[in-house]
Design goal:
Layout: H1 3-16, H2 25-34, H3 45-74, H4 76-81, H5 85-88
Length: 89
């Protein structure tokens, strides 16, 4: 069979089937009923708050490791001697 025949067959099958009924009345009525009473933490703010929380967590974690590295750079003599502290005690 060629493509034209397949397309005609699928087209005739599609004409027989009825479209899926979509009922959005309940959602529209709920939106009208709620109106402007939706809280500030609506659907638009929640994803932004999640991204903010994740980025703050990443900043805190990276700051801890950065402070460790910075302290070693600030005092290289302490860094050099620190492995021998146990031996010297």
């Amino acid at each position: 069979m060629n493509e034209i025949h397949w397309l005609k067959r699928y087209g005739s099958a599609a004409e027989i089937e009825s479209p899926i009924p979509v009922d959005v009345r309940a959602r529209v009525l709920r939106t009208i009923r709620v109106g402007r009473q939706e809280s500030y933490w609506g659907e638009a703010v929640r994803p932004l708050a999640a991204v903010l929380a994740a980025s703050c967590t990443a900043v805190v974690a990276s700051s801890y490791y950065a402070m460790e590295a910075w302290s070693q750079l600030q005092s290289p003599l302490v860094t050099f001697v620190s492995p021998f502290v146990v031996t010297l005690q």
